[in-house]
Amino acid sequence: MSEPIRIPAPDGVAPAAQYSHVVSATGRLVAVSGQLALDEDGGLVGPDDPAAQARQVFENLRRCLAAAGAGFEHVVKLTYFVTDMAHMPAIRAARAAHIPDDRLPASSAVRVAGLVAPEFLLEVEATAVVGE
Description:
- By secondary structure, the chain is α+β, with helices and mostly antiparallel strands.
- The protein has helices spanning 50-67, 88-96; strands at 5-7, 22-24, 28-35, 75-82, 106-111, 122-130.
- Strands 3-6-4-5 form a four-stranded mixed beta sheet. Strands 1-2 form a two-stranded antiparallel ribbon.
- Strand 4, helix 2 and strand 5 form a beta-alpha-beta unit.
- The longest helix is centred in the middle third of the chain and has 18 residues, at 50-67.
- The chain is globular.
């Protein structure tokens, strides 16, 4: 795989501080399903605490990526599903613990009326590209 190419602001598109508008890469695609704030036993982590839930979600993403031979350095796209956009700073802080600002993936954030159960505040899915 070549190093992913990140284009934070293509010509004529307003720059984004929290993501890259375009990321391209070649290699093997890894799709990680949306992760919730569940520990390894299936218990909820951080009831009513978006920061604790975000940390657990990113830990789950890390484990899922590792199972496919990938890491956060291979992530080209993150999709966030949040019940309240006020949770985004906590999500960004959890992401920053794994992905430096100069390697931000493409991203989408979607406010949803609810997730699979009301105690979940956020869900994050990832797309990565790794070498053969």
